[in-house]
Amino acid sequence: MVITAAKCLALSVALIAGVGSRGPVKYTSVTISKVRKSYWSVSVTYPRFQSTTAVTALANHELSRLSHVWVHEWATGVTKDMEKPTMPWLQEYTPTVVSARGEIISLQMTQYSDTEGAHPNTAHFTYNFGFVGSGAKLLTLRDLFKPGTQALAIVSKIVIAKLKEKDASWIQDGTEKALDAKQGDEFVIKPDRLTYIFSPYEMGSYAEGTYEIDVPFATLAAKLNPSGPLRILLHK
Fold first, then answer.
1. What pTM, to 2 d.p., does this model score?
2. For position 236, what pLDDT does the model report?
3. How far apart are the C-alpha atoms of 67 and 48, rounded to whole Å?
């Protein structure tokens, strides 16, 4: 999904790179929830960014949309026609904002579920928004690299090697040999690096927990696009 600067309050490209876009962006937390007493509850908390750029507008729109979708899917799908449980089921989404600037929004959403299984489950989802050209976009790994670069292959080699050093069991036994396209986008953007976040069961057993792998910009510098979404961080 793309919102151009023209569509977002008629912002010009000059405004995109203008005064205020390089500083931190304030945000508030919004929570939506739904409860079926004695059966289940679901809640989603998400950030609402106060700056008005095409990037923050897109982030606000998408995070609101996704949050309402998650609540609706739980209330009408996952729990539909369920028998009354011994203890009410619980589903919660909470955000961790990693970067909040007019040009870059990066965050992690953590899903916690307790549905009377052997143990609760946790999953992580990452969302990155930035400018590609003069338009705002939900970023993929490819967007950060120079055109024609085999971004996934480059990053996969680095990440798999670091997971092996951490003894991630599914890397060690060969179950996972390389990142697929979806896993290649499971990163957040920090001031000097990408951090990959792999949920339990993604690179190893539940007991191994979450794996976080840092990929510094310095190791990718020759391949990253200096005019791309990371430009504000690469040219500090």
1. 0.88
2. 64
3. 12
